[in-house]
Write a structure and sequence with these properties.
By secondary structure, the chain is of the alpha/beta class. Helix content is about 30%, strand content about 25%. Bound molecules: S-adenosyl-L-homocysteine. S-adenosyl-L-homocysteine binds near residues 190, 220, 239 and 271.
Length: about 375
């Protein structure tokens, strides 16, 4: 039997309901000798078993559950079984013409601390803090066994730089999703290289873009821009503060056979661009607004919500009658309800009446664990102004 840790606060119902996390302040002090990465049994104050999982000594997020079944062993075999299951799920939900996808979505795939994206036959892993570092070898071995990648890149959330830990990277990595193709920079890119979670939302933007003037704000390497341009948008303008991201967006246009000269690319601050538009009047029929997370923690939530509100208000002001807004937030601290409320208030502030065309989240390769609201981090709402 693994060593035990015991709850000080009565949070066992939430863990039994599927929430995989227990914070340090809900736990009694640990016995000496426990180290990060060890398997432990979480016990309730009444002495009953709650969950078996992994411990991270130094982190405020101390315990992550692997299983609620006391007779299940947490070992390499279980890790591989869970990863195979994750892979099978992707086979089921992804179209055969999608070569960039999330293979493992951490806790949501019941594998605490491991996110793994596939770019063709290359695996790009993100492991969480000390826990991820202590499990890295096991994770790499499991990924090798289940998908047999030609190369594996690992970035631990504590590290500055990603590392190639298996095989070697080709000069160029290109993924496809339907008729779209993208270059992915696994070593210098954001996240694990690309925002795979917006794939289905790129489809949605594509489905409404034909003939429109589109402004893609926080465009990064042009995911939504390429989707709109390929779908026949009249003109697409991409704005990102990072000049290298804008350059990559241009290259992604060329890769898709779209002449970048017919479109606009601006390395600029979105706040300045939107403020400038208050004077010029409506120039775009569709604005895509997909900012970075402004609320990275519960502490910054209030300030983050104000920034989301300011952006959405300016975007609504900049649209013509019958204009469209595709607005997103990737902060797990912002609930879908809070996000929609913020969008509604922004519309009101801008003096616009709007209709919600649809509310969406990440694609099916980014599943959510039941009982784990944190897993539903991406919000994406399509609206039309009257
Ligand atoms: N929409 C993108 C992902 C956006 S990631 C996609 O679908 O791929 C957030 C991006 O916002 C980053 O590329 C970052 O460089 C950019 N960014 C952050 N702050 C910014 C600002 N104030 N103005 C413009 N771009 C900004």
């Amino acid at each position: 039997m693994p060593p035990q840790i015991t709850l000080k606060k009565p949070v066992e119902a939430s863990v039994r309901g599927g929430h995989p996390w227990v914070y340090r302040d809900a736990l009694k002090p640990f016995a000496k000798g426990l180290k990060t990465g060890d398997i432990v049994d979480l016990m309730a104050q009444d002495g009953s078993f709650v969950a078996r999982g992994v411990i991270e000594i130094e982190s405020p997020l101390s315990f992550r559950a692997w299983t609620l079944n006391q007779s299940e062993r947490v070992d390499d075999a279980l890790l591989i079984k869970r990863l195979r299951n994750a892979y099978e799920t992707r086979q089921l939900v992804l179209a055969s013409d999608v070569t960039g996808y999330r293979l493992c979505h951490g806790e949501n795939d019941h594998i605490p601390g491991l996110h793994c994206d596939m770019y063709g036959d290359i695996a790009s892993m993100r492991t969480d803090g000390g826990l991820g570092a202590s499990w890295e070898k096991k994770f790499v071995k499991a990924v090798k066994e289940v998908v047999k990648p030609r190369a594996i890149v690992v970035r631990n959330t504590r590290d500055k730089e990603p590392r190639v830990v298996h095989g070697s990277l080709p000069d160029e990595v290109i993924i496809s999703e339907g008729n779209r193709r993208f270059y992915v920079d696994l070593l210098k890119g954001q996240k694990t290289g690309f925002f795979l979670d917006q794939r289905e939302n790129r489809d949605r933007v594509a489905s409404i873009s034909a003939g429109l003037r589109v402004l893609n704000l926080f465009s990064y390497t042009g995911g939504f821009s390429v989707a709109a341009a390929l779908a026949g948008a009249k003109r697409v303008v991409s704005v990102d503060i990072a000049a290298p991201a804008i350059e990559s967006a241009r290259q992604n246009f060329s890769l898709n056979g779209i002449d970048p000269k017919l479109h606009g690319f601006q390395a600029a601050d979105v706040f300045d661009v939107l403020e400038g538009m208050a004077e010029t009047g409506p120039e775009y029929d569709l604005i895509v607004l997909d900012p970075p997370s402004f609320a990275r923690s519960r502490k910054t939530l209030e300030r983050g919500m104000r920034a989301y509100g300011a952006l959405n208000t300016m975007a609504f002001r900049s649209l013509p009658a019958r204009g469209l807004l595709a607005t997103a937030s990737c902060s797990s601290h912002v609930t879908p309800t809070a996000f929609l409320e913020m969008v509604g208030e922004s519309a009101k502030k801008a003096g616009r009446e709007v209709t919600i065309l649809g509310t969406y989240g990440a694609g099916m390769d980014h599943p959510t664990k039941m009982g784990f609201p944190h897993g539903q981090y991406l919000k994406f709402v399509l609206l039309r102004v009257h």
